[in-house]
Design brief:
The chain has 9 helices and 13 strands. It is of the alpha/beta class. It has a 6-stranded mixed sheet, with helices on one face. Helix 4 links the parallel strand 6 and strand 7. Helix 1 packs parallel to helix 9. The radius of gyration is 18 Å and the shape is globular. About 35% of the residues are buried.
């Protein structure tokens, strides 16, 4: 996959990272690929330019943050809060520290969520507890925030501002860079990639991706352990274009 991406960039192609994780989580990947800092992070809610500066971000409404602060104290769940480049938690546990296996920074402990401007929060807990939170609050949050599970049936439930997505974030970044989605290939694996694949000229779902994403994709490639990204690039970009 690394070789295929390097070949693509040598042809003048641009690689843009779009992830639900934080800017700092992708530091090693950017270094390995030799990428600039521009990209879309935190489910499309935070956009960085080439210098790594935040050029645009979307925040949860203060009243939603106040409700989330109550939920984490009343329900048996852990919580991670994303704010620009930073990651916070009101209660440090083995679960919140476990986020570091995904290359996230260790969450900083804070007293109250309401003291910070937040892009999104992520609850981590038992599926039945997460379902209870969603059932009680989804209607109350309507029009202001949405619930999202990037991986269906996972133990992680995110709360994000309405009308936000990786696709919307990438569209804004492309406009700033003077690039067109009509020449874009997007690869994803989760339900949170649907808008991104819909935006792109060619939307590719990973073989290990969510079934709903595979159904809407233009092409389903191999899984992440069998160079699915490289195979997609070979098929649509790196092949002989003389025909």
């Amino acid at each position: 996959t690394l070789t295929a991406l390097e070949r693509f960039m040598a042809m003048g192609g641009m690689v843009v990272l779009a992830t639900g994780k934080s800017y700092r989580s992708a530091t090693d990947m950017r270094r390995q690929l030799g990428l600039g800092a521009s990209g879309v992070y935190v489910q499309g809610l935070v956009i960085h330019d080439e210098a790594g500066e935040i050029i645009e971000q979307i925040l949860l409404a203060p009243e939603i943050v106040a409700e989330l602060d109550k939920i984490v104290r009343e329900w048996d769940v852990d919580l991670i809060a994303y704010s620009g480049r930073e990651v916070y938690t009101p209660f440090v546990t083995e679960v919140t520290d476990g986020l570091m296996i995904y290359h996230e920074p260790r969450p900083q402990q804070i007293e109250r969520l309401t003291d910070y401007e937040l892009n999104k929060v992520m609850f981590i807990g038992d599926l039945s507890v997460l379902a209870g939170i969603r059932a009680k609050y989804e209607h109350l949050f309507e029009g202001k925030a949405s619930f999202l599970q990037a991986v269906p049936n996972s133990n992680m439930l995110e709360v994000v501002p309405v009308n936000s997505s990786k696709g919307a974030g990438v569209a804004k970044l492309l406009k700033r860079l003077g690039r067109s989605a009509e020449r874009m290939l997007a690869v994803g694996d989760g339900d949170n990639d649907k808008e991104l694949l819909a935006l792109a000229a060619i939307g590719v779902a990973m073989g290990n991706g969510a079934e709903g994403l595979k159904e809407m994709a233009d092409f389903v490639t191999a899984d992440n352990e069998h160079d699915g990204v490289a195979l997609a690039l070979e098929r649509f970009v790196l092949k002989d274009r003389s025909d």
